[in-house]
Write a structure and sequence with these properties.
By secondary structure, this protein is of the alpha+beta class. It contains 7 helices and 4 strands. The radius of gyration is 17 Å and the shape is globular.
Amino acid sequence: MKIFYSPTSPYSNKVRMAARYAGLETENVLTDTNGNPQDLIASNPFGKIPTLVTDEGKAIYDSRVIMNFIDRETKGKLYPRNAEKRTDVDILEALCDGICDCLLAIVYEKRFHPPEKVHQPWIDRQWEKAGRGLDLLNANMPKTGAKLHAGHFALAALLRYLELRFAGEWQKGRPKLKNWPQKFEKFFPDYAQFKV
């Protein structure tokens, strides 16, 4: 089984950390999506990462679909069986992924437009949405213990991405969020390996 990934992609990091935690053996294939690599495009028509390819050649894409696949393959190591708890984990994962969507929109706006074409109101709008999400997370931090779940990995990947692309721009007024990675790393010591 292999996962096409980039170390800077929060979605790639989420699924790679989850696979490691759940004990699913995968080969991580470093992928530059800008080059339209044929092996990735043959597996995923969008050419997006992460994409997981099973030993039988079945391609699975979209990070949440991959997370659910990992959960099924490892007999429920990422999501609770209790319906209410499962919903809470799903919401946490969606919140973290949604914040990442906003942050990536900001990065891409700056990366793919010359400075005179960068649309600052678009960036401000994305940052506003991301900020609301971060405030919600800071006010409602998930319980974190030895039994980790998909939401924890989504949050860890989000915070790693913030550290990479927005260091010093998001921590003020969010002490619980800022300090959470140290707590998470106690239960997932491999977290440091997913730092770019």
